[in-house]
Structures are given as C-alpha cells and as structure tokens.
Sequence to fold (482 residues):
Amino acid sequence: MSMIEFKQTTKRFGSHLVLHPLELAIGSGEVAVVVGPSGSGKSTMLRCINVLETISDGDLRVDNISVRGSSRDIRRIRLEAGMVFQQFNLFPHLTALENVMFGPIRARGRSRAEACEIAAALLEKVGLAERMSHYPSQLSGGQQQRVAIARALAVEPKLMLFDEPTSALDPELRQEVLKVMQTLAVEGMTMVVVTHEMSFARRVGSRLLFLDKGHLVHDGNPVELLSAPPSDRFRDFLQHVH
Amino acid sequence: MSAVCSALLPASATSPSNLIRPMNFDWTAATAALPDLLQGLELTIFIAVAGLIGGTVLGVLTAVALNYGGWLLQAPAQAYVALIRGTPIVVQVMFIYFALPIMLGIRLSATSAAIITLIVNSGAYTAEIVRGALDSVPAGLREAGLAMGLGFRKVLTYVIAPIAFRRALPAMGNQVVAVVKDTSIFLVIGVGELTRRGQEIMSQNFRAVEIWTAVALIYLILISMLTISLRFVERKSRLP
Ligand SMILES: Nc1ncnc2c1ncn2[C@@H]1O[C@H](COP(=O)(O)OP(=O)(O)O)[C@@H](O)[C@H]1O
Ligand SMILES: [Mg+2]
Fold:
C-alpha cells in the first residue's frame, strides 16, 4: 500500500496549469527528494498532499484517504502529514517548548503534562534541550528550523513534508538541519523533501523526482540520475544548482 | 472709536473699566465645584467603560466577519463600518436619541443612548483596527496551524488572535483614549457627564477660567493614568 498516491492529479491556478496530470505513488518508508527549477510546481505538489492547496482534477490519496474527502478527512490527512516550511513559521508568541507542545495539545488533545514530555524529548532529539524556553526570535535560523521539525513530529505524523527547509538558512547552518532530517530518514520516516541540496538527495534519498514546468520528467534512483543525467533539461538544471 | 462701532457694541463693553478688567481668579470656585465634577467623572467613566467593552466585542465580531465571513456577513459589516466612519458622532447620537425611538416606538434614556452610540461608534473603528491586525499576521502561521490538523477556528483562537492582539494594542490604546474624550459630546443630549457638569456649574457662577481649567485637568489626569496603564500592558505583552 502506498502512503501517497497521485492519480492523474492536476492543479490549476485560474487558467494556469501548474501540475500536469501526475501519476505517482510513494511508498511507506521512502524518502522522495523533489528537485526542479523555481516555479516548476514543487511547492504546489507538496501543498496538495496536505491540502493546503486543493487539487483541480484526478485524485490524490494519503494513507488511502482522499484529499477530496470531507473536512474531517482533510484533518485526518493533516494529522498524518507533518509539514516543514522554508520560512519555519514558528509561532512567535510561544517558546520553543510551547511551539512543540502546541500540536499535541491542540491537534491531538493531549494533556499539558503529556505534551511537555513529548516536546522535551523531541527538542532533545533535535539537539535543542538547552534552548527550550527561548522564543523563536532568540534562536538562529537553523535552530528555528529544528524546532519546526520537532513541532511537526510532535503531532506523531506518518509522513513528513519538507518544502526547501534549508533555503532560508546561511550555508553554515544547513548541515545541522540536514542531519536531523537524515536521522529521521534512517529511522524509517516516510518523507517528501523539496530541496536544492543534491548531496542530501544522493546520500539520503531513496528516490529522486525531477519536476519541470509542472511535468514529472524523471523519477528514479538518486545516485543513478545524478551520476548520469538522462536528459539535457536535467543536466542544465544540475549545472544551475551547483 | 467710530460711531459705527459704538452703535454695535453694548454700552458697558465700551466703558474703560470693563475693557481693562483686572483678572481676578477665585480658585475656591473650582474646589467648591469638585464634588459635582467628580460625580460627572463617575458617569464619564461608566459610559466610556460600557462603550469600550461593547465596542470591542462588536468590533472584533465585525472584523472577523469582514476577514473570514462569506459575503452574507461581509456586506452588512462593510456597510456598518462605512456608515459610522462616514458620519459625525454628534449626528449618530442625535439619531439614536431622537430618531430611533420614534422609528422603533421605544423610550431611551440619555445615558442609554450615549452608551449605545459609543458601542456602535467605537465598534466600527475597532473593527478597522482589528481587521488590520488580523491581516498583518503572516499567512505562513495560519498554514502552520492548519497543517497540524487544527480546524480554522482553533487556528484563529490560538495562533492568529494572540499575535493580532499584540499588533492591535497601540492602535487600541488610541481608541480607548478617543472614546473617553468622545463622552464629552453627550452634553448635547443632556447626559450629566463631566463636561456637562462643568457647563452647568459655569452657567451658575460664571467662573469660566476656574471651572474649565478644573474640567480640563480632570480629563488630563484620567487620560494620563490610562495611557500609563496601556503602556504597561503593551510592555508586558511585548515579545522578546
Ligand atoms: N496561489 C497561487 N496563485 C497563482 N499562482 C500560483 C500560486 N502559487 C503558485 N503559483 C504558480 O504556480 C507555479 C508553481 O509554483 P510553485 O509550486 O511555488 O513552484 P516551485 O515551488 O517549484 O518554485 C508558479 O508559476 C507560480 O507562479
Ligand atoms: Mg517552492
């Protein structure tokens, strides 16, 4: 059973077709790395999965729940699909600990004591045990993004979606975030990662998806695709990222 | 002085003794008026507090309707805000005190009319403030809440509202001060608030300088205290 199934999925903004009919299945435990030029539809594809965008045609099922279902279905999908944003989007009025406790309390209905246990353990896991009572503005970008990952994990998702999680970070802060993501991958988390970090794709990805102008152009083993780019478009793209 | 001017002015005004009347103030007139003025102040505060509480509730509801309601909620909310912002508050209180009771066949005390006017008036301005504050909360924070599986109402309550509240505070502080000062216009319908009391006392003892100085000082002290407490709240809720 696939964790994510695109079935002839399209996405239009007005008359602009951003996602051409997409047929794609991502299995449990896979780490799918999505790459492509800016504007190719990577974010849109990711946001369709947890219904931050509604699909225009076809179907899209997450853990066999359709994104076209009731609002209850949509909430179930969102509980199962954690999301990490390029801009972190931490709640500025809450401390790191409170940010991570937020999901367990408000989305999972846990008690404050339970939520605190979960949050403290996760912050320790992402290496921020010492920063729990800091507000987001008191943390570096890399620390903020690690809190954001912990916040998403605290809801106990079955899969994690990452939308360029290191693009807003200074190069020297990217590794601490990528390391946390690699740990997750090793533990067997199903992940869809939009990124320009080709070394991460090669090292951690079980699958590489190349999107261009809303088309899924390549879908294969990252090491093979990166060592021998099968098309001029992909080769051009790789030259631009490096 | 020309003959024309002498004809225009009353005889007494032209007499030298009146033209250069020495300024003799009697500040005991102000202290004697104090108990009466403080009674007026009490009513001023009562009307302002009732108006502010009601106006804030109405304003927040209107702002939520404007931002997140369908057109069925948006249209009346927009019309309401446009109506209030497009008319002077004196006209609003005249309408509510004199016209509305006729139209609805009800009786309305002057104090009730004053409170209703303040609620309706402050509600419209508060709606604009709150709407701006809600708009200023980055969309990414709303998405972060939704992406966790929260319903929109929970996102509004636990994410958007606490941030918007902080952003609205400075403008709401101004609104609180404006409402307190606006209570003085209710002297036109005979509400015995501070300004009306001042006017009544003045019309008996003609001590304009003493009475209006006292009235002004009372307002100044009240509003200074308000401003200081508002600053304190702002500082307390400011994020690091
Ligand atoms: N909310 C939107 N309204 C209209 N067009 C949009 C919207 N979001 C994205 N687009 C368009 O869809 C295309 C794909 O965008 P996006 O998925 O963000 O690309 P990527 O993440 O690969 O850079 C772009 O042309 C973009 O302008
Ligand atoms: Mg993008």
Observations:
- Residues A 42-43, 164 surround magnesium ion (ligand 2) (CB under 6 Å).
- DSSP finds eleven helices and no strands in chain B.
- Residues 2 and 89 of chain B are 44 Å apart (CA to CA).
